[in-house]
Amino acid sequence: QVQVAESGGGLVQPGGSLRLSCAASGNAASIHPMAWYRQAPGGQREWVARISSGGSANYADSVKGRFTISRDNARHLVHLQMNNLKPEDTAVYYCNRVGGTWLWGQGTQVTVSS
Fold first, then answer.
1. How many CB atoms neighbour CB 92 within 10 A?
2. Is the dihedral of CA 9, 38, 36, 80 positive or negative?
3. How far are the Cα atoms of 17, 96, 110 from residue 101, in angstroms, in the given order?
């Protein structure tokens, strides 16, 4: 079973930026289509962004133009650059294979607050 680990979250003021990173077992993050998801307090997990094996990206409307997903295949990582953060971006962020078929990691907390 592939395991994932997310990192890079923290507390940031509105308008600030954070860069999240995702690692998966072996080179899994380099060869599979990958996605970022988030779950706000009291809410359901929702899809945020995805990237194909070839590097094509798609975004949820709520983050389009502010977030960028990318792959670092040499280091087997997937990143989520988050700019112009808003309080409504506050959530635990998770990465997984597109479709969420792997075991979920613990996620990384992102809190946007002044």
1. 18
2. negative
3. 29, 7, 23
Reading the block at residue 97, the tokens are 């294979």
> Order of strands, edge to edge, in the sheet holding 18-24?
4-7, 18-24, 77-82, 67-72
> Helix, strand, or coil here: 59?
strand
- pLDDT tens sequence across 55-82: 999 999 999 999 999 999 899 999 999 9
C-alpha to C-alpha distance for 12 and 3, rounded to whole angstroms: 28
Q: What is the pLDDT of residue 29?
A: 87
Could you give the CA distance from residue 32 to residue 21 in angstroms, rounded to a whole number?
A: 16
- Mean pLDDT of the region 23-36: 90
